[in-house]
Amino acid sequence: MLLRTTVFAAIMAGTASLALAQGTGSEGYFEVYNNTGGNVVVGFYTNDGSGWSDNWLQDAVDPGQSATARFTADTGPCDQVFQVGWLGTDGGEVLDEPISIDICAASNIYLDDNEIYYD
């Protein structure tokens, strides 16, 4: 069974505007944006070196929507790996390649059709 890391409290799906105040991992939260043309995000997983977390998404994130990720721990490793799960044509989950991230410096994670990046 996958272990939940202590880095995130939750990711809550919902619409968000780029006009909202931007946070950084060092401030305790960041935003995950689904900028795809038609792909639905059904999973978001993290790994701080101790194993993959459970899925942090409570709901799917449709194109044009975003989810807020909040930390639970005051300290923890900044170097993380995250992996996105997409809704497959058969209704199952298709996992993307894991991506390294400095979670403390991230304000936003952008999930585009052919690219995943952060700032």
Biggest sheet: strand arrangement:
1-4-2-8-9
Q: Strand share of the residues?
A: 35-45%
Oligomer kind: single chain
Question: Which residues form runs of ≥5 with pLDDT under 50?
Answer: 1-23
Question: What is the total tally of β strands?
Answer: 9
Estimate nothing, just give the exact number of structural domains.
Answer: 1
SSE-based structural type: mainly beta
Level-2 CATH architecture: Sandwich
Distance between the termini: 31 Å
Q: From the alpha-carbon coordinates, what is the Rg to the nearest angstrom?
A: 13 Å
CATH topology: Immunoglobulin-like
CATH class group: Mainly Beta
- Helix-residue proportion: under 10%
Shape: globular
Mean pLDDT over the full residue set = 77
Signal peptide: 1-21
Keywords: Signal
